[in-house]
Amino acid sequence: MKTFDEALHYLLSQVETTQKTETIPVFEALGRVLAKGIVSDVNVPPHDNSMMDGYALHSYDLEHNSTLTVSQRIPAGSQPQPLKAGTAARIFTGAPIPEGANAVVMQEETEADGEQVKITSEKTRPGQNIRKLGEDIALGDEILKAGHKLRPQDLGLITSIGIGEVEVYQPLKIATFTTGDELLEPGEAPQPGKIFNANRYVLAGLIPALGFELIDLGQVEDTLEATIEAMKQAASIADVVVTTGGVSVGEEDHIKPAIDQLGSLDMWKVKMKPGKPLAYGDIQGTPFIGLPGNPVSAFATFNLFARPYLLKMQGANELKSKPIWLEAMFAWPKPGFRREFARAKLVNKNQKTYVDIYPNQGSGVLTSTVWAEGFVVIPEDTVIQKGDKVAFYPFNPINE
Q1: Which residues does residue 375 pair with via DSSP β-bridges, in sequence order?
Q2: CA triple 32-35-39, angle to 5 deg
Q3: What is the spatial distance between Cα 316 and Cα 210, in angstroms, rounded to a whole number?
Q4: Contacts (Cβ under 8 Å, ≥6 apart) of 331
Q5: How far apart are CA 348 and CA 306, in angstroms?
Q6: What is the dihedral of CA 144, 148, 154, 155, to 10 degrees?
């Protein structure tokens, strides 16, 4: 039985990053992964400019007189004249600083009277309220590295240096299908001995949410021949094939013998809960990940194993969410030999944030994944007391 860390390390060591890229407008690039770093060929700001509305002047002139003549008006986007000695320029936020000025006094610290302005602040220092050329971004800076998954603020940063197109990796195509005569589709009438197919819809949400293209081949007849044909089709059109269930050695489970004929398959028992069984291999050279059939286990193992695998294959640098360490509102009195990923959510109490877990952590309780906001990790052979610090991993990291 592999430990969680051993299984994840091995899985990630097998990844080959896609080499398929495309150049697209920045406007369409949200959620895409950069294939090439972004280097600035301009300074931001491109000139010294005012941080606020006020008056540009030379601080030395105020040592002799607090009232100055206003010699020019400088709105944003204009080109100012050099500042006449002993005068001030009316200036607005973002406007260029005129040659000869070394400070801006905010208008709240002035009293205007016609063409004269009195400076009421006690002291004006050089550089006050001025954003310097290249203060944000300097010419030649690499502002974003290859492998970065683009967020809204990244799009703003890229366009702030005048770039309109970016080179990104093409989205991975992830094929999935369902087997099992016991499964019903939503809308069908309930039948004795059968269950509704939740896993198909869990994957149909998880895969596109990461920015991948979902290829849903639907429900496949529960025979070896049909499974082999589905495998061939999936491998021919997708970058990765992901399925749930059907990888055991039972007579009614056809995925393992199908892959044995078409490629290779490793089956692991991972020291974790939920989600002990996990399969990895290839179908005619296309990577395959087999998740457990239990819906909670499928949800957990996708997030903990398939997600980082697919993100690395997509070229992303950030593969895991970062833990938030919080005090537990629960106790975990019995240590286990497997690492537990308890479904949990944040709780605000007395102006402090804690984390609590769903009362029923059974691997068949899909309700727990809807109630929860993330996983609390309970290490092997560990007891948790109320008030202990525990690691909470959000389902949806803020950088997604």
Answers
A1: 343, 393
A2: 105
A3: 11
A4: 384, 385, 386
A5: 32
A6: 100
Amino acid identity at 386: K
Helix H or strand E segment including 144: strand 142-144
pLDDT in tens, 367-390: 999 999 999 999 999 999 999 999
pTM: 0.89
Residue 256 CB partners (closer than 8 Å, separation 6+): 246, 247, 248, 249, 265, 267, 279
Q: Hey, what are 187's tokens?
A: 């809308």
Main-chain phi, psi angles of 159, to 5 degrees: -70, -20
Alpha-helical regions (H) of the chain: 4-13, 152-159, 198-209, 224-237, 255-262, 295-301, 307-313, 367-371
Instruction: Say how far apart CA 272 and CA 8 lie, in whole Å.
Output: 12
pLDDT by residue (tens digit) across 226-277? 999 999 999 999 999 999 987 665 545 788 899 999 999 998 899 999 988 8
